[in-house]
Amino acid sequence: MLNLQPDESISWMAPYAYAIVLLGFGFFLFRVFENWYADYFDRPFYRHLFVFRRLSKPQLQVLAQEIDFFQRLKKSEKRQFEHRVATFIAEKKFVGRDGFQITDRIKVLIASLACMLSFGRKNYEFALVDYILVYPGEFYSAINDRYHKGEFNPREKALVLSWKDFEEGYQITNDKRNLGIHEFMHAMQLESKSSRDLDSNRFAKQFQNILKRLTHPEIKAKLEDTQFFREYAFTNQYEFMAVLAEYFFEAPQEFQKLFPDLYTATKKMLNFRFAGY
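Structure (tokenized):
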């Protein structure tokens, strides 16, 4: 005789199945809202859910003593920044080349520049970068048969730096030159083309907005008259954006005064609302 009674081993699971469906639907609705919010307000709905990673005392001392940006953050922002730096160090592989020795100080300083650039983003981990290769000085690049101070190699997922030039870039904060910001900006640009997360979509939107503004006659005339941006910026649109980021961080007041629209678009692109920017 057939047993037509409900299987108790299945029926008791029904509430859990309903709960999973409801959770999935709730997550879907939240994603829809999150996308709407980011598109409407030009910023992510939230940047952090959990802040738990800590640096060692020597690492935190480097951060507190040598990174001016960190010193100007609010207390809660400092914890967020420390978490991000510690996460970056834990997830990237740092490799010294030509006999260069990687120390904790070097890791903290490089991670800090990357995390400063991405501090306004929810997605801050530079997913296209797995390796940080550090040379003592300029290095030969087989990509174009030239010596470089820095480069980003997306195929190898490697960001390559001359330590001499990187260190000068972060120590001299008002010369509008910062190798770390420049190269990490290239990585962020490429990520915005290959990813579909909220930050990448916002970045791509403002990137195009900036390029359109550069075609305006008054902007073009002012760029020529002031010669504010160094000549290398006009190599191509990608180098312009990398140089733009350097100027945003190292000459924010002058940048905002001369080109307020470009400054505002850059600020929106990076969602940068910290330390007086």
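The chain has a mean pLDDT of 88. The first strand starts at residue 93 and ends at 96.
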